[in-house]
Every structure is written in C-alpha cells, then in structure tokens.
UniProtKB/TrEMBL annotation:
It comes from Paenibacillus selenitireducens. CDD domains: TM_PBP2. The keyword Transport applies. PROSITE patterns: ABC_TM1. This is Sugar ABC transporter permease. GO terms for biological process: transmembrane transport. Pfam families: BPD_transp_1. The keyword Transcription does not apply.
Length: 270
C-alpha cells in the first residue's frame, strides 16, 4: 500500500509537469479554428504536421539557428576552459588572499543579473559590441561563480597523491591539469556543460538587450516575431517552440547519467 501511494503521487506530479509540454505539442498541430474552442480540445481532430514547416519558413529561422549554435558553442568552450582553470587554481594552489578571493567569488553569486545589466550594456556600448554576438559569448570566457565553485569541490575530491606522482615524473602544473585533472573531472565538466547549454540556448533577455539587427537574432528572440500588432500566431509559436526544445531535451536525455554522477561525486571532500 505504501508503494502504491508513493507511485500514485509520483504519477500525479509527473502529469502536472508533462501537461504543459503535451499541450504545446497538440497546439502545434491544431488548425486555427480549433485553437480557441471552448471547452479546449486536447487532441485535435486532424493533425496538421505541416504547421512545423510553415512556421519555420515564416521567419528566417535558419539564420536564427546558426546564431544560436555559434553563441552556445563558443560560450560553452569558454565556460569550460575558464571555469575549470580557475577552479583548479582555487583547489590546489596556495597564494595570499585565496580565501578572501573565493569568498568574494561566492558573494557575487548573490548579485542578480538585473543589477549588472545596465553597467554591462554601457561597457559593451563603449567597446562597440552592441548588435554583435560578442556580449553573449565573451563573458563566458571569464567563468561563472557557480560553475567554478562546483568544479573546485570536485577537484578537491581528487587525491593529491596522483598529482604528486605526476610531479615526480617531471610534469609541470599545466601538464598535470591537462593530462590528469581534466580527464578525471569529466563528469563534472559534462554537468557544467549541460547547465550552460540550457542557460545559453534558452536565453531571451540577453539577446533582447544587446541585439538590434534581425540577422543577429537567436532562436528565442526569433519567437517574438510571431507577435503582431493585431494578434499572436499561437500555432506557429508552439510549433517553433517544440522544435527549439528538442536539442536541450536530447542533450539532457543522453547526459542524464553523467549529470547524476557529477552531482553525486561533487563535494565529497573539502
């Protein structure tokens, strides 16, 4: 009876989370006439699969897709390199003021992005980066406090004796980091990569602020083009939204076991 109650509650809550996604899929294949009927129809009478191609071709989503791939890929590379390098420095090196700098790093996590939004815009405007993809890529090359903290905790769980053995064999700190630490921290790096891809791929406010030219738009910003003066093309929005959701869902599905492993093994020591 206890298991029945537990599984019943899990199924109930899973339905609550799946229902909006299911509604998005069914709305994407509805006809405009069935969209606003009352009571609402969960299952359309006829599945209009052509809505996906029609919605994608309505706007230059191929250009938006290319921009999203560039932003996500370049920022992911910078985020992994910078966060891992800084985390390794905090975990293994001893220098004056290390604890103070680490506390400042953790304190910066409490500052919301909305507070630094205007100063960042002024800085990027001074550099001439407005209406380019640089404001969405370059900041990731300086690391993120949460990712640095996460990777630092993982590195502190790696035995120091491995690095001492490599140092005896003549390896310098950079070689130890590249050949020893990075392969060992691959679960944590995959975890950071998945988190960053989800944040970058779904980012809407950043492109909205820094981009003006439609040829620079990302996929999330391109969705706003379906909002007209006299109405909203809800079928096209749902169709393109479903297509945009597919890459993050696929990444999360294939990296799920690495995510669980990275979280489980982070912070065991230290």
């Amino acid at each position: 009876m206890k298991k029945i109650v537990i599984y019943g509650l899990l199924i109930l809550f899973s339905i609550l989370f799946i229902a909006p996604f299911f509604w998005m899929i069914t709305t994407a294949v509805k006809s405009p006439e069935e969209l606003y009927v009352f009571p609402p129809k969960w299952i359309p009478s006829i599945f209009h699969w052509s809505n996906f191609a029609t919605a994608w071709e309505t706007q230059p989503f191929n250009i938006y897709l290319k921009n999203s791939l560039i932003v996500t890929g370049m920022s992911l590379l910078g985020q992994l390199l910078s966060s891992a390098l800084v985390a390794y420095g905090f975990a293994r090196f001893r220098f004056r003021g290390k604890d103070t700098l680490f506390m400042i790093l953790l304190a910066s996590m409490m500052i919301p992005w909305e507070v630094t939004m205007i100063p960042q815009y002024m800085e990027f405007n001074f550099l001439g980066w407005i209406n380019t993809l640089k404001p969405l890529i370059v900041p990731a090359w300086f690391g993120a406090p949460f990712f640095i903290f996460l990777l630092r905790q993982f590195i502190m769980g790696i035995p120091v004796e491995l690095e001492e053995a490599a140092r005896i064999d003549g390896a310098n700190p950079l070689q130890i980091f590249v050949r020893l630490i990075i392969p060992l921290m691959s679960p944590a790096l995959i975890l950071v990569g998945v988190f960053h891809v989800l944040n970058s791929w779904n980012d809407y406010l950043g492109p909205l602020i820094f981009l003006n030219d439609q040829s620079k738009y990302t996929l999330t910003l391109g969705l706003s083009q379906f909002r007209g003066m006299f109405g909203v093309d809800m079928v096209s929005i749902m169709a393109v939204t479903f297509l945009i959701c597919l890459p993050p869902l696929a990444i999360f599905f294939f990296a799920q076991r690495y995510i669980v492993g990275g979280i489980a093994t982070t912070g065991i020591k230290g």
